[in-house]
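Appendix B. One record, verbatim.
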Amino acid sequence: MEGEFYHVFNRGNNKRPIFNKYFDLNRFLLSIQHFNNTDPIGSIYENLFRNKELGGSTSKLDIKSEKLVDIVAYCLNPNHFHFILKQVSINGIQKFMHRLGTGYTMYFNEKYKNSGSLFQGRYKAIHVNSNEYLLHLSAYINLNFEAHYRSESTRKSNLSQSSWEEYTSNKKDSDGLCNKNIILSQFKNMEDYKQFAKDSLEIIKQRKDLQELVLEDIS
């Protein structure tokens, strides 16, 4: 439903890795941006080269059309991912996730000479039915790496990334993937949110709530 928030997640088929190298992780991040638009889409590479010819970046696309979804928060782990998405167009989440899953699978299978499904079936989408749930879920997803890895170096070596960096920087929403103002506008400042997020994650871990740590982080 338009205007509603959803927790969207999936994992690799049979728990297989979906990122083998940092290039894969960066390709997935670029795909998130590329496929989140209402207009017909073409090749990522063709659009990047076209962007470069017009004086733009080769790491960020200049997309003029309307979005399918607002990305509120995300985390990417070696064999699974989480999003908080706000649906802003009709069937926006369905269209976005189909494009993202199909496009990235084609890239991954061609690069690694695989065939078949990369992801374990259709993505899961859980309606976020309260603002309190939205805030705590943002903390869980933004700090998801702390639920998995004890140190920054371990996180990096395990090919993980989240929107925490966007939330803790002074970059504008237009410079990142997320509409972080949906969350941050409810706090006095960035530091206030950072403390809330860290406190929230500890409570979630201790109580093992938030859908039982999101089904033990999708197992």
